[in-house]
Amino acid sequence: MAALADAQPGRAAPAPAPASATTSRVRQRGFPLWRWAILSIAGLYFLIPLYAALKFAGYKAFPDVVHETGFTAALALSVRLAVITTVLTLLLMVPTTVYVHLSLPRLRRALEVITILPIVIPPVVLIIGVLQIAPAALKGTSNLLALEYVVLAMPFAYRSIDAGLRALDLRTLFEASSSLGANWLTTLWRVVLPNLRTALLSAVVLTVALVLGEYTMASLDLYQTFPVWIVNFEQSSGPVSTAASLLALFVTWLLLMAIVTMASRGARRRGGAEVALFTVGRQGTGDSR
Amino acid sequence: MCSANQMADNLAPAQAPGIRKDPGAAPRRLLRSALNAGLRLAGVVPFSVYVILGLLLPTAAIAVGAFQNSVNGHFTFTNVDLASHGIYLTGFRTSIELSVLSAVIPGIIGFGIAYAIHSARRGAVLRRVAITASGVFANFGGVPLAFLFIASIGTTGIVTGWLNDLGINIYAGKFSLFTLTGVLLAYMYFQIPLMVLVILPALEGLRPAWREAASNLGARSWHYWRYIGGPVLAPAFLGCVLLLFGSAFSAYATADALTAGALPLTSIQIGSFLNGNVIAGQQNVGKALGLGMVLIIAVVMIVYTLLQRRAARWLR
User: Fold this and answer.
1) Which of A11, A97, A120 to substitute to test the interface with B, most B CBs within 10 Å?
2) Integer Rg of chain B from CA
3) How many beta carbons lie within 10 A of that of residue A222, not counting itself?
4) Is residue A284 part of a domain?
5) Is the CB of residue A188 less than 8 Å away from at least one CB of chain B?
């Protein structure tokens, strides 16, 4: 596999360890060859199917996507669901997570376990139960989907916000702010949220990615969202449908990249910790808890 | 807890600060602290209500429905009995087999990748690309994913063609994209990124100081992993693998798209109940299957919680 690693000159060059940081020099001493080998194999595993699909779709299919019947309606529905889901998720998760960090740190572990449940409870099972107990007024609208997507988004939203909060000294912020006369909500709105910008952005992108890609619930609830449209449309034109799904994938990825790049640039300027989706880089060896 | 008390005060202006001067201060203080504790929990009420309505109640409804006759709603064991025999038992078996494989293999690979990312320089482009890609691919699935694999290693796929040119015909043996092996290969596409996302925080919890201390004491890399890194990370690693098990177990869209129902998986069988491809009067068998899945997941999650508690001893 060394040959494969060499075939990618941009990736194969091991990054020189910064002279000042002794810790990273210790970390990098390991097995650079082993590291590049595994990353190259993984890269191939993830890129080859994308390449194959791109080749199948053909570049001409991409401009056609927007003109297909049903595309606009399906995308509009998905975007509407994404907006509702994102707003509800933020309204629900941000105050709760901040509150738990601040006043009920003991509940953090419980919250962690509860918010992981939507990853493991099968959506097929969940949607049966939801359709069974939902009031008729709600069952007739696609809003029911948005309400359930909030549940599905919890694992990603909670982890992003939690990672962001761990990088802040929340207690000091609240004490300083309340000694200046601000109440809880004011502090949350004007002090905590601006500091959480990156974490919130990544929560938003992950939520949007989830809603734009969710198929199981939407199809079983009989709504033609974007992913359901892609599947239905595949019967009439495979290449166009493939192009549409590749497009969705790349756009989400680019958005996430932009956010993380922006955020880490800002963090470097301010000297803060790097926030990358779920993890927070430690500053020095200081313990954050 | 200073700020917490201030918060409770903001929420309850009725609790005047002067109350402490009263003669019966002690019992009142007790009452007050109980009140405070109650008020402090009030902050998580909206979240709890949402989780109960959106997650727990639907799950409970399945459990109840599993024991109801599909037609008249009377109590019965027939659904559970049907769901635990024949094709449905095969479904559970295949589901578990597939989930174990697509938890362990991507778990190990994902750990390797996460470690490689973790040891790369902070802020490096590679790191950013890998982490964001994990976020996106962990949510990828269904027909688009099935299509990616049909286009690459299907009978007329690109990779199949390349291998054919090299004289290797992967379809000469028993391999097919529409079997367990094929589905496993496709599941890895979202399982590996999920592993990277969930194990990275644990890796970040390994203090560089431990490594330095170990090497000061003369430990080689192997010693470090055998006596420090390994034991510290083991509970977190196992916990993440269990999570992957749950994720694979609950997956539906990808297997459905890839095998069109040819592979007996429980989630697909449940889906067919919802799609209406089912004998009349047996609708609630789907709920019994759902209950079975939830029970298996419950066991997995209990073990996961115990492991997380152990992991938290050293990490974070």
Assistant:
1) A120
2) 26
3) 10
4) no
5) no
Place of tokens 């006043």: A103
d(CA A116, CA B160): 38
Task: Establish if A155 touches chain B: CB-CB under 8 angstroms.
Answer: no
Percent of chain B's residues with pLDDT above 70: 88
Q: Each residue of A210-226: pLDDT tens digit?
A: 888 888 888 888 888 88
Q: Tell me how far CA of residue B163 lies from CA of A190, B170, B258, in angstroms.
A: 59, 8, 22
Q: Which pLDDT tens digit goes with each residue over A124-137? A: 888 888 888 888 88
Domain B78-311 grouped into CATH 3.40.190.10: no
Cβ distance B3 to A178 less than 8 Å, yes or no, reads: yes
Percent of chain A with pLDDT over 90: 13
How far away is chain B from the Cα of A1, in angstroms, using its nearest Cα? 15
Give SS3 for A140.
coil
**Which residues 59-88 of A are in CB contact (within 8 Å) with B?**
none
Q: Is residue A228 part of a domain?
A: yes
Angle between helices B86-119 and B125-137 (to 10 degrees): 170
* Count of structural domains within chain A: 2
The reported pLDDT for the residue numbered A90 is 93
Q: Residue A139: which domain range?
A: 62-274
The whole-number pLDDT of residue A94 equals: 92
- What are the structural domain ranges in chain B? 2-64, 78-311
* CA distance linking residue A78 with residue B148, whole number of Å: 22
Phi then psi for residue B252, to 5 deg, are: -135, -50
A26, A47, A109, A128, best to mutate vs chain B, most B CBs in 10 Å: A128
Q: Helices A71-103 and B2-11 sit at what angle, rounded to 10 degrees?
A: 120
Contact between chains at B301 and A261 (C-beta distance less than 8 A):
no
* pTM of the shown model: 0.78
Number of Cα atoms under 13 Å in the Cβ half of residue A19: 0
Name residue, tokens 């990249």: A257
Q: Are residues A49 and A68 in the same domain?
A: no
Q: What is the pLDDT of residues B45-96, one digit of tens each?
A: 999 999 999 899 998 988 888 888 877 778 888 788 878 888 889 889 999 9
Identify from A20, A124, A211 which residue to disrupt to test chain B contact, counting B C-beta atoms within 10 A and taking the largest count: A124
C-alpha to C-alpha distance for A244 and A252, rounded to whole angstroms: 13
pLDDT of A19 over the 60 cut: no
pLDDT beneath 50, residues of chain B: 1-20
Calculate how close chain A gets to B174, using CA atoms only, in Å.
Answer: 22
Cross-chain residue pair A15–B121, CB shorter than 8 Å:
yes
DSSP codes joined into one string, A145-185 = HHHHHHHHHHHHHHHHHHHHHHTS-HHHHHHHHHHTT--HH
